């Protein structure tokens, strides 16, 4: 008799704790980090020439990258929250080709592409009786870029957007989770380099997360 009662009691405590951890109320903070895959493989460039502008393309092959950052959120309703996020993304350049008329005139490797994004997000958490809380969200904001490579092109910041989905698993006063997100921009443009250039930066992140909630 005692064993079934004990199992039932433990189950009730677990479900109650999980429901409390999943209940959306008040503010929270999150740290996140993981793998980033850069999907932007070229920059379209127009440079001055003696006979007129010359259209060229800088092509890239990227190695594995990483992303990490943090955010502060607040539940407007039990299911919906608003967030302010800062995330850094970096990817190594395995090879770089400066292409004119279909021919690579320069081919080299090395360098990296680094961005910092400042985002305002909206997140909807799906209410369930499970021991985890799935969620979906999206955001808009502004991103800056630093390109440590050899084409000499400096780019301004750009409007940024993202879509994300994940799940949280209660752990003590907080929650561990996993998240996948698609991040992109409307295009970084050249500034003060004597050339016109546009770089449609985009990529996918797969990250681990940790949330800590405040209040009841």
From TrEMBL:
Q: Which residues form the signal peptide?
A: 1-21
The residue ranges of the Outer membrane protein beta-barrel domain are: 9-211
Sorted keywords for this record are: Signal
Q: Name a Pfam family for this protein.
A: OMP_b-brl
InterPro entries cross-referenced by the UniProt entry: Beta-barrel_OMP, OMP/PagP_B-barrel
Q: What is this protein called?
A: Porin family protein
Q: What is the lineage of its organism?
A: Bacteria, Pseudomonadati, Pseudomonadota, Alphaproteobacteria, Parvularculales
């Amino acid at each position: 008799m005692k064993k079934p009662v004990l199992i039932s009691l433990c189950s009730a405590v677990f479900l109650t704790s999980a429901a409390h951890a999943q209940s959306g109320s008040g503010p929270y903070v999150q740290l996140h980090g993981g793998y980033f895959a850069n999907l932007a493989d070229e920059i379209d460039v127009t440079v001055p020439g003696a006979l007129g502008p010359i259209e060229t393309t800088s092509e890239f092959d990227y190695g594995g990258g990483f992303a990490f950052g943090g955010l502060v959120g607040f539940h407007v309703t039990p299911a919906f929250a608003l967030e302010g996020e800062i995330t850094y993304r970096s990817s190594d350049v395995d090879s770089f080709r400066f292409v004119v008329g279909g021919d690579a005139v320069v081919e080299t490797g090395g360098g990296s592409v680094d961005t910092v994004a400042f985002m305002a997000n909206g997140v909807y958490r799906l209410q369930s009786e499970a021991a985890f809380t799935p969620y979906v969200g999206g955001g808009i904001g502004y991103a800056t870029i630093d390109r440590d490579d050899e084409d000499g092109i400096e780019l301004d910041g750009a409007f940024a957007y993202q879509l994300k989905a994940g799940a949280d698993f209660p752990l003590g006063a907080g929650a561990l989770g996993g998240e996948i997100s698609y991040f992109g921009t409307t295009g970084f443009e050249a500034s003060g380099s004597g050339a016109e250039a546009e770089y449609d930066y985009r990529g996918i992140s797969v990250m681990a997360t940790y949330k800590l909630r405040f209040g009841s």
